[in-house]
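Below is how a single chain appears once it has passed through the pipeline. First comes the sequence as given, then the structure the pipeline wrote out for it. We keep one example in the README because the format questions we get most often are answered faster by looking than by reading.
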Amino acid sequence: MELGLPLFPGIKFPTSRNTVLARSSPNNLSQFSSNASSFTSISVKPPTKTVPGKPEADVVVIGSGIGGLCCAGLLARYNQDVLVLESHDLPGGAAHSFEIKGYKFDSGPSLFSGFQSRGPQANPLAQVLDALGESIPCAKYDSWMVYIPEAEFLSRIGPTEFLKDLEKHASRNAVQEWKKLLEAILPLSAAAMALPPLSIRGDLGVISTAAARYAPSLLKSFVEMGPQGAFGAPKLLRPFSEIMDSLELRDPFIRNWVDLLAFLLAGVKSNGILSAEMVYMFAEWYKPGCTLEYPLNGSGAIIDALVRGIQKFGGRISLGSHVEKIIVENGKATGVKLKGGQFIRAKMAIVSNASMWDTLNLLPKDKLPKSYIDRVKTTPQCESFMHLHLGFDAEDVREDLGIHHIVVNEWERGVDADQNVVLISVPSVLSPNLAPPGKHVLHAYTPGTEPFELWEGLDRRSAEYKKLKAERSEVMWKAVERALGSDFNRDKCEVKLVGTPLTHQRFLRRNRGTYGPAIQAGQGTFPGHSTPIPQLYCCGDSTFPGIGVPAVAASGAIVANSLVSVSQHSQLLDAIGI
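Resulting structure:
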């Protein structure tokens, strides 16, 4: 079924779509928790009510994805008056959770690590949460099930466990090449992680907050790497495939596996991802003592923590507040116009957490340079998603069920081919409270590989649309049946939801339902955070560092830092010990 707009018994919805979460109303948070309502309840018709409270703020943030919330949280922490305008009834964008019949579903990312890390080398999201005085209780684990053409096996992270998998399911040559790869890139992680993302800003103040402040640690990392490692450091800004080529890694299994990791991380293969991103991931997944983490209460717990942080420091979030236009006066972005006509003034800046294409659609074209318009329109896009959300009886599945499963049907087609890779998450394995007693909750999806062109222009109520949904979701059903075991029966599921690129476009307001920009490392760069319009900034997956939870958290932090003084920024770094 399409993710529609039904009302569900027992679910409490906000009485006003425009209620503002602020310090003056501490009891509002539970009412608007991204775990407390249903994704299917989100309003897809822009509301017309006005934003309560004063119709202005120092900074107005458009959209409440992780990037926008990180930006708003830090701005509130910096004592700026910040207002987040969210079109839907729930905060969180692609990372929110929704509930149906007692099943709490993740709508987006579910593979996480680094929430418990602290200090200069911590995950950017963990650094933001630390600055806000928030934490996320997590369950830890170290493995996922892999279903590939060669074999089915439980893959464990860490420096040695994967070597056993390679020896059993690949070849001795693959083992040697993997060792060679780790020996070459793990030393580079010191350089890749020497500058904390929270230290970066978009002006010359970065010399003080990042370059000078962390010069000793940078120098130490280069010394520890030795001449060969230091010589290789510039490769961090090049495609990761170049590092593999320089090491003469040719084993098909290793090349395919690294392509899969790169695609899961950033939506491109190893020839399109920055080496710095991959090195950072390897440092988190293949060093001694590393673990994966899943937030108890689902991915919505991340959103709840960020909302609490914003609220704690006096920031406001107005839900059901659809921005129709960004207003440009005297050459500067001065505010936004909501659906219904209300004008919200931004005294210092506007930050758009929408995609580059959706942000462009909010701007008056006659105020923009043609070069900017052309760049946005010609930036390649990742494809969209198919989603499958299920609620079912735990007795109908294998007893040793793990949380994550990755299915690759054919290496030859490439991990970026449509209908070829399926990711499955069963978070109730680690967090049973996400499902009713004795039940499981499951989210399966094709990771940014579903062509929007197949769906464009279809009427969601038509027989043609329903037929295509059934056809294109079958690859996910088969992957789920493979992962859950022969006793699983799709007909016995208590909840069955199929989402398409049109669902993705409609509910998340993403241009063509896209995963984000498909910018290849070495061929292009993600845009910075400023725009040709003074006082208008952007954060999220259309900006540097790119796609993925750590990247969008970093982008939000960079924008927030850029809007305050170097002194305020430095004081925050001191306060959180980085």
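Residues 1-19, 22-46 have pLDDT under 50 and may be disordered.

See the next section for the split statistics.
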